[in-house]
Amino acid sequence: MTTGLQVRNVSKNFGGLRVARDITLDLPAGARTALIGPNGAGKTTFANLIIGALEPTSGSIYLDGHDISKLPEATRVGAGIAKTFQITNLFRSLSVRDNVRLPILERERRTASFLRRYDGDSAVEEEVEKTLAEFQLLPLADHLVRNLAYGQQRLVELALTLSLKPRILILDEPAAGVPSSDSHLIIDAIKRLPADLSVLIIEHDMELVFEVANRIIVLVNGTILVEGTPQEISQDPKVRELYLGAGHG
Ligand SMILES: Nc1ncnc2c1ncn2[C@@H]1O[C@H](COP(=O)(O)OP(=O)(O)OP(=O)(O)O)[C@@H](O)[C@H]1O
């Protein structure tokens, strides 16, 4: 059986606008692939096609050989495809620990009883502490999310997403809005992600992309211009001209 995510000849039109054109790519287990490209290239649209927020006009998406192209977003999350939460989904008036606990409980389908009364469950609490430790959030565990620096909030967001135990993770601009002095927090967290997780990183920050990705896909006008290793991409004249500009690589 083919494992991981396979995208085959996927196109998406918005009326007459062709935003994804015949995209084919593989995200095998353990992939660290970055999707880069100029503004309006269709990166977010492509992420939305994978998670099921949009349905392709044509083409198919397979998870472990099963066609998931028509499955709704919630079903795909259950199947193991996750995208980083928007920061607005964090509970800003709750502590970091309480935020991390919620998706774990939700995964265990206990959210309703949690909202009524939660007396603690040692397996859940153990996982909460483990997750906090993995993301180096233990020193901040009792802080309210609203009091954290932006980069730290993004770390909490990543920890929450990982609590869903996805197999395919879409990181949509993980460093957006994070001051460069804090971008190492995000880079380190991505480097510590489980080795067998398939990760697709959509990102403008080239320093981050070149540090964490071992494969880069350049999207232009909804189509794959070129795909290769970071070294190949940094040396590709079309990419240098179109996207990276002089002085990179
Ligand atoms: N729901 C929609 N209806 C119509 N057009 C859309 C819709 N969503 C996106 N577009 C258009 O599709 C094109 C690609 O947008 P998309 O947001 O996917 O690009 P992007 O590469 O993510 O850009 P950025 O880097 O600026 O986030 C743009 O021209 C955008 O205006």
TrEMBL record:
Q: Name one GO molecular function term.
A: ATP binding
* Pfam families, per the entry: ABC_tran, BCA_ABC_TP_C
Q: Which residues form the ABC transporter domain?
A: 5-246
Q: Which domain of life is it from?
A: Bacteria
List the keywords (alphabetical). Answer: ATP-binding, Nucleotide-binding, Transport
The reply on keyword 4Fe-4S is no
Coiled coil (residue ranges): none
Cellular compartments per GO CC: plasma membrane
InterPro entries per the UniProt record, alphabetical:
AAA+_ATPase, ABC_AA/LPS_Transport, ABC_transporter-like_ATP-bd, ABC_transporter-like_CS, BCA_ABC_TP_C, P-loop_NTPase
Q: Which family does it belong to?
A: Belongs to the ABC transporter superfamily.
According to UniProt, the name of this protein is ABC transporter ATP-binding protein
Which organism's genome codes for this protein? Tianweitania sediminis
